[in-house]
Each structure stands twice: as C-alpha cells, then as structure tokens.
Amino acid sequence: MSTHDSSYFQVALSTSLVVYGFDGENLLTLIGQKPQEPYKGAPMLPTTMVKPDQSVEDAAAAVLTESLGLSDYYLEQLNAFSKLYRKPEGRVVNIAHYSLIKHELMERKPAAGYQWIRPKEMPDLVYDHNQIFDFAQERLKRRVKHRPIGFRLLPKEFSFNQIHLLYEQTLGKKLDKRNFHKKLMRSKLLIDEHKAEKMDGSNKPSHLYSFNEKRYNKLNLRGYDFKF
Amino acid sequence: MSTHDSSYFQVALSTSLVVYGFDGENLLTLIGQKPQEPYKGAPMLPTTMVKPDQSVEDAAAAVLTESLGLSDYYLEQLNAFSKLYRKPEGRVVNIAHYSLIKHELMERKPAAGYQWIRPKEMPDLVYDHNQIFDFAQERLKRRVKHRPIGFRLLPKEFSFNQIHLLYEQTLGKKLDKRNFHKKLMRSKLLIDEHKAEKMDGSNKPSHLYSFNEKRYNKLNLRGYDFKF
DNA sequence: ACTCATAAGTGTAAATATTACACTAAGTTA
DNA sequence: TAACTTAGTGTAATATTTACACTTATGAGT
User: Fold this and answer.
1) Are A204 and A115 found together in one domain?
2) What is the mean pLDDT of chain B?
C-alpha cells in the first residue's frame, strides 16, 4: 500500500439519507428534489456533498437540519455506494445513511422541495438513489425484527394499534393482531400507562403505552429476535 | 448540493479486509504488516489504496490475490470508516470489507508478511484497524446466526464436529452438541454422505456431510434464524 | 488380546414459543 | 336506539428450545 502518490486524492464524498418517520398512522420517508440542471427538480434522496474537512456524520446531520430543521436524530450508516459513476469533475462516493425521526418532531413542515411520502409510493430517483433506498428498506426490516427500533419512531405514549400499524408497514406484511400483542407483552418492553384516549379516526378510545427504556437498552445491546 | 467546486475532490479511498478461513479445526483471520515507515512491520489488516478509476471491489479482490493468491472469494462490504484521520497528503476513507475463504483454498501459504492467526489473538493494529476488525466480528456473528454462511468456510465434505467447532468459535460460546445437531438436521441443510473418515487428532471416524446448495440458496435469500 | 484413553454419536422430557382463528366491548353517528 | 366502527381479548394444536449423560468405535500402550 503506497499513498505516496497524490494522484489517489481525487475523490469526492457525498451522503444521501433515507429518513423515516411515523405520523401516527403511516410510516413515511423523505424525498427531496435535484437543485440543479440536468434534471433539476427530479426526485432524489436528501443528499449533500461532504467537505474535505467535515465528518460524514456531520454532513448527514446538516441534511437533516436543512430539510427538517432538526438537531435531534438517530443516524446509522448504510453502505458506501461507490460505482464508478462520475460527474465531470471526478468520482463521487456516496456514504449513505438512514435516519429515524421521533414522532414528536414530525409536525413541522419539511423545508421547500422536501416532502414526506409513503415508502410504497417511492418514485424513480436520480442516480442510484433507488438502490440506496432499497438497501435502507432491507436494513430497516432487519433492524425492526432484531431490535426494538420501532420505539424511535413512535410517540412517547402510543396505542397498541399504532405500533401494530408501524410494524406491519415496516415489514410490509400483515401481522396477526392477537399474536403480535402477545409477543409484545412477553417482551416486557411496554409499560401500561393505565389510561385511554381517543385516536384520530377511531371510536373506542385506545389504551396507551410507553416503552421501558431500561429494558430497551438491554435488548438493543444484546440483540433480540422478534421473529415476526 | 453543489458539486461545481473542485475543492471537494481531495479524498483518497482505501480498503481493508477482514479475511476469515477455517483450517479444519480453527477459525482464522489474516493479518499483514505495514510496508513502510512509520511503524514499518507493524501488524495491520490487509489493505490497499483504491485507484481513482478502480472499483472498490476490484481493489479488495487485488488484496486477496496479493496476500493469498486467490481469485475465488466471497466479499462483502462492512462500512466506510471515514474518521478525519489524515495522511500528510489528505483524507483517506477506508471502505472496509470482509471475506470468507473456502477451506480448499486454505492450504497455500500466505505471501510474505501475511499470516493466519486466531481472532482471539488479534494484536493491536495500526490506525483504526482494530475497530474495523471488531466491526467484522460482529457482522460475522450476525451473519452466521441468520444465514447459512458457515458453509462458505467449510470443506466440501465435513464432519459434524467441524461445523460445531466453527460455529462455537464464530459465536464465541459453547453450543450444546446435541441441540446443535438437532437444529442443523431440522434445517435440512446437511446431506448425509453415508461415509465416515478419521479426522486429524481424532479416534473414532467421523461421519461426513456436505450441504444442500438448493436449500442453502433459498435460506440465504429469505434469511433464516438459527437462533443459537 | 486386553485395558485404557479419547473423541464420536445419540434421546427424552419439561418448558416455552408459535400459529391459526372469531367474537365481545366501547363509543360514535345518523 | 340501532347501526357502525375500531379496540380488545383466549385457547388449543403444534413446533421449538433447553437441560442433561451415557454408549460406541477406534488407537495406543502394555
């Protein structure tokens, strides 16, 4: 390995984010628009170039600040997408991330050019962004099965039906209500708040739960098999 | 996102590999040596710089060719390690990979400066290579639990004790022999070759198995929970 | 050829988890 | 007050997990 050759130092870094949120009923993901020609306005993942003296995480965080005005976020690296796929200026390597946004922070409108959409309605994106998105979807599915990650998306107090909807949408399949309930309760992740509240578009008030952070941290560390 | 600024194009790419093999008794991993001052000769992961017009996978494959003389390999990206951690020439981003080597290819001696060691005996490595190695260890554990990945390391025909040893070493814990046997058999991944052979350092000849590729491919795709 | 040492190979019972499945309860609306 | 909508709940059959110890086949030494 020889780095004594400045010809190696010709690559630029970017980072694209797959951002997930839950509005109380639906799992959503954030898309932006290409700011410049060619294909100005075409849908793309929220993306930024990484400055040579900037950490990739900082660059990713800056995207969240710009698009959603957030400084509180969960961020995880997905993969480096490094196809030899070029701009006129040279090679760009995209170190993609995914991010989970707390429900409480979902009320603000995204900045101009950004919008929340349902993952199923993801349009064709520029560059290899659809590949990045698919990668994120797989990662999210795996995470939600093996870690109690859903709680990063839910409100502090949530109904059983909300967590049920979230897991169904994340995994992309129906989950039997009673069996899901049983499994959640067995996990002891939920704290019964002993109160009920009418949810939007509901009739009978829903029982509220919060989640047990201590136990969450244990399971998050050890890993866990929800096995849905 | 503006890339119309050539000042972004100042980064170099490298790739480090965590290579695993199984010699019939032990899970092994490959270390190299730093070829240049400072710290010339210090242990490091097998690593190369990526040429600006080279795919990262090609660069990683070249490391395997150089160190082990292999052109047949399994390679998977781990993560980009992009700490702002510099050479005099600028920033280097390491897109690390891990690789699994078939047992049949383990007989050749590694090239000068490379050697197989047990993962538990991994020494202090240069740069952030220990962090990369730890990341690989976690990935390997997860993979071995959720995919029938062990078969990429084993000989074509192997004994129950070999796969048992491999899984114990990969997961870093004892696995009850009878329960492990039961689970493997239930998975229907093993084909009984109906013959026995005395293994090295053994007495009673061991029953040989090969593995069912069709079923392997199915499970590899779907994912699988060994749940050890 | 017999004894000893070594690694291979095998089964069962108890506890827990998974799956499939349909009705009642509480409150809203017309 | 009847009709509608969503919330909430249990059971039985099957499958999986766990804990646990002895027998078998061979090689080595006498």
Assistant:
1) no
2) 92
